[in-house]
Amino acid sequence: MKKLSFIIITLVSVASFSQNKEILYNFTSVPQSLMLNPGADFKYNWYVGVPLFSGISANIGSSGFSAYDLFANNGVDFNIKLSNVVSSASRSDKLAINEQIELFNGGFRIGEEGNKAYISFGMYQELDVLAYLPKDPILFALNGNKNYLGKVFNLGDLNMKGEMISVFHLGYHKNLTKNLILGVRGKIYSSIVNFSSTQNSGYFYTIPGTKTIYDQVFVSDILINTSGISKYSGNIQNDITKKMFFGGDLGLGMDAGITFYPEKNIQFTASIVDIGFIRHTINVKRYTMKGNYEYQGITPNFITGSANDIYNEIKVAIPTDTSKDKYTTWRPVKFNSSYQYSFGDDRNSDCSCEGSEFKYKNALGMQLFAMTTPRSPFLALTGYYNRQIFDSMQMKATYTIDSFSNKNVGLGVSSTLGKANFYLMADNLLSYADLAKANSLNFQLGLNLIFDTKNKND
User: With DSSP H G I counted as helix, E B as strand and the rest as coil, what are the percentages for the chain, rounded to 5?
Assistant: First the structure.
């Protein structure tokens, strides 16, 4: 039972996120597109998001297996299904969890006619958890080492980090020419809770011995950082609220973006998001397990015989030390770029139809997304079709290939009725017939009040 509990906890706690919002990126009828590219081609006079409802998004997924593989009601014992999943997985496989809620958001134009700029601002809460599937530790916990003579179990597979933060941001956006738009955004991070363990090393193996039947070697160099976890006042809600509004560990960051039109119907965009760090100083605890242990005996299995004695010897040889040393974490940097070809001009549009403001009904494009992780970068490639259905409604369809899926179809709709703008987006639509077999699910929705700049006399 202890073994099964350990495995389930490990599987549930090990998660990763992609943070790719391929439908929202460059979907400029939605104000929140500025959060992915502060240099997006954005044309509203001013907007304000409905507090707590202007931007809600969630993502969950796995690249190695689905919930169906573990929990299908097919008569197969859970331990067998779990063993099959772990055996077929690799140390590069990951699960995915990401959640974000805007607390408030808004923006407005400044400057005189012909020299206008745009200021955006807001605050959001975000939960991220990032790690890779620790295949070797799970294999050892599930099967022991008896049947793995000569196999080196890699403790470096233990690689995870997670945090809950709030972010206050202030952005500046300007059309330098009619074909070139630049934008930047500054951020203040306030960390509510953080844990990270991403630079672990060590190994364990069992081999036939020279003096005894078996030699076993255990080498560990593991570091776990935590902040904001060890102490609470007794009222968790108040503690979280206090840390959310700059009472937590603080950090700084920035975003930058660009939009360029080499031709009036051809567009290039690029952005880099979350170049930043957080310095952790509040309720910090750092745990280290460093040392080595060698065992010589007649049994290759730590779970039988004198297991308790061996466990106690390991604790002495590889002690767990605790410190309160401060540490720094870096935000996962995201990069976006896109190429878009527009066609089917909208002669009924109210725009001035000059430079980048020329309206088209259709657009085809490609988008590249990349994000730093403790190992190799996460990459995603998206093809998309954008359609202006009515003056008040726009649709975007996407097809994305990434490490979670090679058949991810998404759809987003943005509708503006009067001053109210509502948007709804979801991807991996082909999996909705059987969600248990889905490798990833992602949705976004929000409600804003928008005031347009369209003026036939401009």
Answer: 15, 50, 30
CA 242, CA 390: separation in Å to the nearest integer?
44
The identity of residue 135, as a single letter, is K
Q: Tell me which DSSP letter residue 16 carries.
A: B
What is the reported pLDDT for 260? 97
Mean per-residue pLDDT pooled into runs of 10, the chain (458 residues): 39 47 92 94 89 84 63 70 72 76 92 81 90 79 77 85 92 92 96 89 82 80 87 68 84 97 95 95 90 73 54 76 91 95 70 53 95 85 93 92 83 92 89 64 88 52
Q: What pLDDT, on a 0 to 100 scale, did the predictor assign at position 183? A: 96
Cβ atoms of residues 383 and 404 within 8 Å: no
Amino acid at 396: K
Amino acid at 150: G
Give me the pLDDT at residue 298, please: 61
Q: Closest Cα partner for 253 from 197, 329, 324?
A: 329
What pLDDT score does 335 carry?
96
The token duo for 193 is 């809770």
Q: Which residues are within 8 A (CB) of 449 and not within 5 positions of it... i.e. 6 or more apart?
A: 47, 48, 49, 50, 419, 420, 421
Answer yes or no: are the C-beta atoms of 194 and 176 closer than 8 Å: no
Residue with tokens 């080196």: 152
- Count the Cβ atoms, other than its own, within 10 Å of residue 145: 19
pLDDT of residue 313: 72
| Torsion region of 144: left, alpha or beta (phi above 0 gives left; psi -120 to 50 gives alpha) | left
- Give the C-alpha separation, 175 to 355, whole Å: 11
Quote the radius of gyration of the chain (alpha carbons, Å).
26
Distance CA 339, CA 345 (A): 18
Tokens of 54: 């202007």
Which residues neighbour 140 within 8 Å (Cβ) at sequence distance 6 or greater?
148, 153, 204
Query: What is the H or E stretch that residue 312 is in?
Result: helix 307-317
How many other CB atoms sit within 10 Å of the CB of residue 125?
Answer: 18
The answer to whether 255 and 187 have CB atoms below 8 angstroms apart is: yes
> What pLDDT does residue 5 have?
38
Q: Could you give phi then psi for residue 155, rounded to 5 degrees? A: -75, -15
